[in-house]
Automatic annotation (TrEMBL):
Pfam families: FliM, FliMN_C. NCBIfam families: fliM_switch. It comes from Fictibacillus macauensis ZFHKF-1. Transmembrane segments: none annotated. This is Flagellar motor switch protein FliM. PANTHER family: FLAGELLAR MOTOR SWITCH PROTEIN FLIM, YOP PROTEINS TRANSLOCATION PROTEIN Q. Belongs to the FliM family. Keywords: Bacterial flagellum, Cell membrane, Cell projection, Chemotaxis, Cilium, Flagellar rotation, Flagellum, Membrane. The lineage of its organism: Bacteria, Bacillati, Bacillota, Bacilli, Bacillales. It is a peripheral membrane protein.
Length: 326
């Protein structure tokens, strides 16, 4: 990752060059020399950029669905959006979250392993206060949640799993099930410390309270659907191949469909006055010659040329030209 210098560091660098403490020519030589970058095997990047983009797209959809769900439950303004998507060791993720927080552990059959949604205490208590009839004020006392408060919060997050299921429906059909509700990440061991996980950070605003929600997806959980997370796979499977039974069913329905077919003898133009004065036996002068073929329309589109005649004493037309073949 490229390091970004602060303004003070830039000023110090320019000052060192101007005073001669640092030689610009030496800097250019170092720039041209072969660079060696240290690779940390503990932070191996196991997800491609393509796969990360697909995971981001899924969770952007989840954020929209979760916004609707939480807004309906709390009856107040809620805004949830994806802030970042990072891959890092599980141990580093555990160290980055608060010592006391809200942890929702769940599984998503048929995917193996367990997943985690971590909710910042500020957000969690704002939700709880709103559910209990308050204004959504956040009071961070997560270490001393009562049984009633724990039950209310766990039910709220259990209901959000349906939104997670719908968000993943474009990739794989899952059935999320809540397993545990914890407040101390030290007691939570989902995978080995060096296992790579994808952490999706969601910026959450409830009324005037803001905080973060983090969705942690271990690599071992996503491994069975890694191929489906590539855009190439989505492009290949976008067009569904119909089974023979489905094709036969569609063809039978099309054969039984009603279509309006009109054989036009010709056209005539007249005034509204002449039209109102028409009576039985009047003759209309058409713009079509007697020997000219008739136009046949199917659902108001000209499809055939035909000639008039009779079949078993009934008026009929015989098709002469199929216009779509011309």
């Amino acid at each position: 990752m490229t390091e970004v210098l602060s303004q003070n560091e830039i000023d110090a660098l320019l000052s060192a060059i101007s005073t001669g403490e640092m030689d610009a020519e030496e800097l250019k030589k170092e720039e041209n020399e072969r660079r060696i970058r240290t690779y940390d095997f503990k932070r191996a990047l196991r997800f491609s950029k393509d796969q990360v983009r697909s995971i981001t797209r899924v969770h952007e959809n989840f954020a929209r669905l979760l916004t609707t769900y939480v807004s309906a439950q709390l009856r107040t303004y809620v805004q949830i959006s994806v802030a970042s998507v990072d891959q890092l060791p599980y141990e580093e993720f555990i160290r980055s979250i608060p010592r006391m927080t809200i942890l929702n552990l769940f599984e998503a059959a048929p995917l193996p392993g367990r997943l985690l949604i971590e909710v910042n205490p500020n957000i969690a208590y704002s939700m709880l206060d709103r559910l209990l009839g308050g204004h959504g004020t956040s009071v961070n006392k997560v270490a001393s949640l009562t049984e009633i408060e724990t039950t209310i919060l766990s039910q709220l997050f259990r209901g959000s799993l349906s939104s997670y299921q719908e968000a993943w429906s474009t990739v794989v059909d899952i059935e999320p099930t809540m397993l545990d509700f914890e407040v101390n990440p030290q007691f939570l061991q989902m995978v080995s410390p060096n296992e790579t996980v994808v952490v999706i950070s969601l910026t959450t605003t409830i009324g005037e309270t803001s905080g973060m929600m983090n969705v942690c997806l271990p690599h071992v959980v996503l491994e069975p659907v890694m191929q489906k997370l590539s855009v190439h796979y989505w492009m290949q499977h976008q067009k569904k191949t119909l089974e023979p039974e489905e094709q036969d069913w569609i063809q039978e329905r099309i054969k039984r469909s009603d279509l309006a077919i009109i054989a036009e003898l010709g056209r005539s133009t007249m005034t509204v006055q002449d039209l109102m004065e028409l009576t039985e036996g009047d003759v209309l002068l058409l713009d079509q010659k007697l020997t000219a073929p008739l136009s046949v329309y199917v659902d108001e589109k000209k499809k055939f040329l035909a000639q008039p005649g009779r079949v078993n004493r009934q008026l009929a037309v015989q098709m002469l030209v199929d216009l779509k073949e011309e």
